[in-house]
Amino acid sequence: MGFITEFKEFINKGNVVDLAVAVILGGAFQKIVDSLVNDMIMPIIAFAGNMENIGELKLGPFTYGKLMAASINFIIIAFVLFMIIKLMNRTKEKVIKK
């Protein structure tokens, strides 16, 4: 079997295509979550703290605004992934019971 044929078989496997789609959708979803956090959640926190920019959040010499935004991003994405997996598991259980 030639290299090209073997490569075609590898690329055409469902797992590779599924992974590529997941990576692309994940990147697009990340942009949505970034916008939600940076354009909606962080300005509310800045407003509540009477600040113009969330980057002004400091604890002594340390600024932690960007870390806080990244943490909120992570929590939102982790929660959405948890809900997707939970839904998939529930659907799988229903299919198995039938």
Descriptive overview:
- The chain has 98 residues and is mainly alpha-helical.
- The protein has 3 helices and 2 strands; from the N terminus they run ααββα.
- It has a single domain (3-97), classed as Non-ribosomal Peptide Synthetase Peptidyl Carrier Protein, Chain A (Orthogonal Bundle).
- It has a two-stranded antiparallel ribbon.
- Helix 2 packs across helix 3.
- The protein starts with a helix and ends with a helix.
Q: In terms of structural class, how would the helical and strand content be classed?
A: mainly alpha
The largest beta-sheet arranges its strands as 1-2
Could you describe the largest sheet, including whether it forms a barrel? 2 strands, antiparallel
Percentage beta strand: under 5%
What is the CA–CA distance across the termini?
A: 42 Å
The top-level CATH class is Mainly Alpha
CATH topology: Non-ribosomal Peptide Synthetase Peptidyl Carrier Protein, Chain A
Parts with pLDDT < 50 across at least 5 consecutive residues: none
Number of helices: 3
Q: What is the β-strand count? A: 2
> What shape does the CA trace take?
elongated
- Mean pLDDT over the full residue set: 85
* Tally of discrete structural domains: 1
The helix-strand sequence is HHEEH
What is this entry, summarized?
The chain has helices at residues 3-12, 14-48, 65-97; strands at residues 58-59, 62-63. By secondary structure, it is mainly α.
How do the helices and strands line up, and which of them pair or pack?
Blueprint: H1 3-12, H2 14-48, E1 58-59, E2 62-63, H3 65-97
Antiparallel strand pairs: 1-2
